[in-house]
């Protein structure tokens, strides 16, 4: 699964996710990637999110929208909201994976609860990093 | 001045250190950097966040190493079925596709759904029909083939096991987790 989130010069944000799914999947199984609110979500009032991991758990957790809702209704920062969903809620549901997020100020989060994550971030403040987190 | 930011991901799962050579690791990092550069160039040129995330995702889809577009994993039937979604935070408009085949860049098709349809989510043959109508580029099955993904599938195709991007899971474990 691949994905991206961005904040542009007008402070607009967006999210994209694309996947081949899981090897050996059957019955027309889809995961969270194409589901708005589960694996992909963007709202200028909160943040943009793209998820990767065990799609079934992300669907049941409505993970991407949950991050946004925590910001909108509970006033959490994007980092606090992402940590709550990935490191607390998804862990309790035994959901393996993570997400990337950015808010309209360009603040970004890359959080995950599994062993391997392929990530990159580039920003106008000079940040430019790619890594395979282990 | 507004801060421009692009963040990307290329998958999830456990890294098998025996299979991850230095050369392969560098190839993954190079692929991530190319996607990052491509998407960020759109932002630097004054492009929209939607176009930036699409551009970065297209580059990752075109890279055989990542499980999306070219290099997608095999289903139980030995096919590639792909899913994608895109959402614009400015107006909450979105487009998504699921179970599409032979579409070179599923994120391009999802963007067509966002811009040029009255719907949010198209699936299966109907989504493929929409791709043809919109002139989205298609490719033969061979284009999507990768030996690595084929070998990964061959190892589990006669079982009910499946793998995440980089991890093997046993169905019995998943039953415990109440998947589905």
Give the tags:
heterodimer, A: two-stranded antiparallel sheet, 3 helices, 36% strand, B: 180 residues, three-stranded mixed beta sheet, two-stranded antiparallel sheet, 6 strands, 43% helix
Describe the structure.
The complex is a heterodimer of chains A (134) and B (180). Chain A is built from three helices and eight strands. With 134 residues, chain A is α+β, with helices and mostly antiparallel strands. Chain B contains seven helices and six strands; from the N terminus they run E-H-H-E-E-H-E-H-H-H-E-E-H. In chain B, strands 2-3-4 form a three-stranded mixed beta sheet. Chain B has a two-stranded antiparallel ribbon with strand order 5-6. The longest helix of chain B has 23 residues, at 22-44. The chains are: A alpha+beta (134), B alpha+beta (180). Chains A and B meet through strand 1, strand 2, strand 3, strand 4 and strand 5 of A and strand 1, helix 1, helix 2, strand 2 and strand 3 of B. Strand 7 (117-123) of chain A pairs antiparallel with strand 1 (5-12) of chain B.
SSE blueprint and pairings:
The complex is a heterodimer of chains A (134) and B (180).
Chain A: E1 2-7, E2 13-19, E3 40-42, E4 47-53, H1 55-61, H2 63-74, H3 78-92, E5 97-103, E6 108-112, E7 117-123, E8 128-133
Antiparallel strand pairs in A: 1-2, 3-4, 4-5, 5-6, 7-8
Helix pairs in contact in A: 2-3
Chain B: E1 5-12, H1 22-44, H2 49-62, E2 82-88, E3 93-100, H3 106-116, E4 121-123, H4 124-134, H5 141-144, H6 147-154, E5 162-163, E6 168-169, H7 171-176
Parallel strand pairs in B: 3-4
Antiparallel strand pairs in B: 2-3, 5-6
Quick overview:
The complex is a heterodimer of chains A (134) and B (180). Chain A has helices at 55-61, 63-74, 78-92, and strands spanning 2-7, 13-19, 40-42, 47-53, 97-103, 108-112, 117-123, 128-133.
